[in-house]
Amino acid sequence: MVRMKWLVIGMIILLLFILLILLSKISLKVTFLYSEMEKHCLFQVKIWMIRYTFDVLERIEKQQKKTGQKIKKAEEDGGIDNKIMAQLDSIGELIKKLQDVHTIVKDFLKRVKINGWKWHTQIGAGDAASTGIVTGYAWGTKGMAAGVVGQYMHIVDVPEFEITPVFQGKGFASRCELTASFRIFRTVKTAIKLLMFMRKQKSGMTEKSVQA
Question: Of 13, 60, 187, 208, whose CA is between 20 and 30 Å from 139?
Answer without folding.
Answer: 60
